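PROTEIN DESIGN WORKSHEET
SECTION A - STRUCTURE
LENGTH: 666
TOKENS:
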């Protein structure tokens, strides 16, 4: 950049002179900046307008083109407190009767109070069922059937209240143990007999053997994934088609789960052996006393800690030694791993040779203050769930209605039949509720009115934009111009420009013309031609440029005094109204769809040339950048010229001063 001297020698205000010179140069860029601003405003205006048109297209217009939306029915009930009824378009008009015999309900049981477990502790989800009275040696299985689901829980020494609740939930039931009420609450999530549930227990030798194997592998302290793996191995082992080799592989995998348990058992046994304790004590006492200085005595706590550390180390070595010995010889004597493997093999043998005898055991659930639940019928032949004390039960019921003499049942209180949707609320007994199905003229009228409102809103905005006053002479304000105006003046100035942006816009005219010409078409129905005006829908004044009004519309002061022809037509000739309006709106929908197709000028789902505007903006911005670079070069050139002038004048002044000094001296 050239040096910028501010008239040090010439006395000229260089900055001001250059600024004035550049004003003329910046005229072209200002014009281009104005074009960009106006095009961006046009883009924003069209985006907003396009959103409104598309919303109308997918909403009110789309709804009007389907004939099914004109066939709405309404139902009046003589007792909505007992039953509410809605109708679809397929229902024939007329009077009907209905009786409500029963209301659908869900099965729900409340258990008896369990104060504490057998150890006197409060019940939590972690409480073991064995501490509530279940004997894990009985091989008990809790079975739950809920609807089409059947789940079971084999009760072992580590089975908890949480496991029981999760089993209920796996059956699709809601289940909790309320710690404040000290009861189990279990219920169906859905109403009706089909969603009822039963609960029972049974005992078998197979389950007993499985539980013993689970205890051997430390099932209670396992993760969910490990438990799943153990159960899968046990299920596979029970397969009668397995070879001896297959079973040996499964035995090995199950034994792997026992390694940690066996290791801990060896260590605990070693550390509890009196001989080992004595030997470690004597050894550590001698070692520690040898390290004492004269006059010092051995601290018993130091000795105790040293003995424990030595025993722990030796116990670890003993465990490793026994494991290596067992791996080398599976029949190694006096080896805990050998003993565990033998116990495992015996238990697995008992497990697969068990005869599978199952005996019903109904008393176990009483430990949970629950009871066996079985399905049956009462004296009147109604479905019931039989229960025993101390369980309180809410019976599952289906909703039952008698509609025009036909008996209809449902597991839900919402019943659909013959195009009617019944919502059952209360029993009527032998009393009948009278229903009257009629055509819902008001719903159709409101749909048409909503369409007309949306149509007018868009058409008015298009009219206002297309026929807007000219804004000739108005250009976007520069920063300097804005500084001389108030905010209100700036707003009015810019609004004048924005209002006229779509003046005589081809796209706006195309949409306007498409809307008005389509809705003015005649439609023939049964040999007779109809138009919107046939049903009291038409224009009021040419000055409104196509806006529609519904004669007799109480919310429209221009036509509220006129006859309500639309409502009359909906009563006397609904078929013609349906066919004419659906045909006209279908045609408009189709033309709009075609108008919104993608092209080289516009994207899909747009009514204006968005691609063209975007390309123009890009082009203008490139041109502006080039012009700004040229202006910058020109400005630098001016400063360079003034700098050269200042330098020359400075040299001249210097020479003059020197000459004057020389003459003066002479």
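SECTION B - SEQUENCE
RESIDUE ASSIGNMENT:
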């Amino acid at each position: 950049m050239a040096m910028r001297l501010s008239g040090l020698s010439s006395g000229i205000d260089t900055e001001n002179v250059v600024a004035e010179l550049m004003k003329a140069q910046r005229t072209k860029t200002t014009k281009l900046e104005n074009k960009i601003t106006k095009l961006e405003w046009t883009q924003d205006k069209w985006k907003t307008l396009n959103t409104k048109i598309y919303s109308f297209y997918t909403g009110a217009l789309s709804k009007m083109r389907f004939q099914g939306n004109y066939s709405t029915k309404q139902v009046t009930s003589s007792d909505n407190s007992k039953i509410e009824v809605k109708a679809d378009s397929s229902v024939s008009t007329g009077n009907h009767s209905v009786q409500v015999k029963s209301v659908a309900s869900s099965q729900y049981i409340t258990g008896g109070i369990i104060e504490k477990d057998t150890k006197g502790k409060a019940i939590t989800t972690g409480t073991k069922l064995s501490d509530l009275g279940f004997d894990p040696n009985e091989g008990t299985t809790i079975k739950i059937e809920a609807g089409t689901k059947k789940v079971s829980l084999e009760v072992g020494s580590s089975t908890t209240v949480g496991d029981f609740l999760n089993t209920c939930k796996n059956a699709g039931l809601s289940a909790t143990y309320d710690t404040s009420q000290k009861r189990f609450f279990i219920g169906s999530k859905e109403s009706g007999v089909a969603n009822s549930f039963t609960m029972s227990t049974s005992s078998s030798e197979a389950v007993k053997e499985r539980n013993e194997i689970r205890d051997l592998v430390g099932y209670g302290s396992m993760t969910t994934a490990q438990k799943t793996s153990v159960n899968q191995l046990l299920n596979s082992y029970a397969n009668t088609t397995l070879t001896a080799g297959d079973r040996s592989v499964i035995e090995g995998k199950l034994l792997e789960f026992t390694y940690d348990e066996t290791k801990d058992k060896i260590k605990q046994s070693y550390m509890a052996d009196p001989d080992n304790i004595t030997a470690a004590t004597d050894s550590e006492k001698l070692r520690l006393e040898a390290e004492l200085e004269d006059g010092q005595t051995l601290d018993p706590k130091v000795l105790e800690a040293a003995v424990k550390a030595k025993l722990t180390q030796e116990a670890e070595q003993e465990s490793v030694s026994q494991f290596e010995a067992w791996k080398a010889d599976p029949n190694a004597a006096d080896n805990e791993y050998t003993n565990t493997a033998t116990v495992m093999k015996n238990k697995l043998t008992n497990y697969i040779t068990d005869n599978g005898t199952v005996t019903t055991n109904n008393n176990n659930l009483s430990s949970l203050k629950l009871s066996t639940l079985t399905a049956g019928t009462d004296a009147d032949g109604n479905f019931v769930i039989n229960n025993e004390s101390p369980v309180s039960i809410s019976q599952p019921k289906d909703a039952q209605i008698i509609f025009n003499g036909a008996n209809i049942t449902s597991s839900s209180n919402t019943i659909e039949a013959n195009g009617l949707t019944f919502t059952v609320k209360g029993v009527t007994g032998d009393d009948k509720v009278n229903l009257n199905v009629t055509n819902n003229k008001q719903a159709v009228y409101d749909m048409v009115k909503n369409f007309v409102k949306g149509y007018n809103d868009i058409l008015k905005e298009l009219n206002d934009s297309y026929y807007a006053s000219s804004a000739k002479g108005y250009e976007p304000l520069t920063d300097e111009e804005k500084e001389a105006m108030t905010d209100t003046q700036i707003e009015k100035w810019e609004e004048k420009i924005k209002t006229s942006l779509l003046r005589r816009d081809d796209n706006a005219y195309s949409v306007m013309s498409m809307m008005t010409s389509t809705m003015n078409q005649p439609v023939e129905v049964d040999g007779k031609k109809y138009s919107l005006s046939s049903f009291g829908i038409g224009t009021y004044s040419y000055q409104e440029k196509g806006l529609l009004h519904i004669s007799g519309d109480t919310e429209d002061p221009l036509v509220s005094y006129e006859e309500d022809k639309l409502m009359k037509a909906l009563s006397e000739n609904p078929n013609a109204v349906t066919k004419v309006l659906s045909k006209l709106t279908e045609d408009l929908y189709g033309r709009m769809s075609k108008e919104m197709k993608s092209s080289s000028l516009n994207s899909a789902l747009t009514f204006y040339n968005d691609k063209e505007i975007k390309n123009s903006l890009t082009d203008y911005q490139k041109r502006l950048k080039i012009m700004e670079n040229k202006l910058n070069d020109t400005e630098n050139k001016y400063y360079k010229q003034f700098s050269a002038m200042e330098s020359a004048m400075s040299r001249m002044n210097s020479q003059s001063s020197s000459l004057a000094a020389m003459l003066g001296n002479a």
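SECTION C - NOTES
The longest helix spans residues 610-665.
The mean pLDDT is 90.
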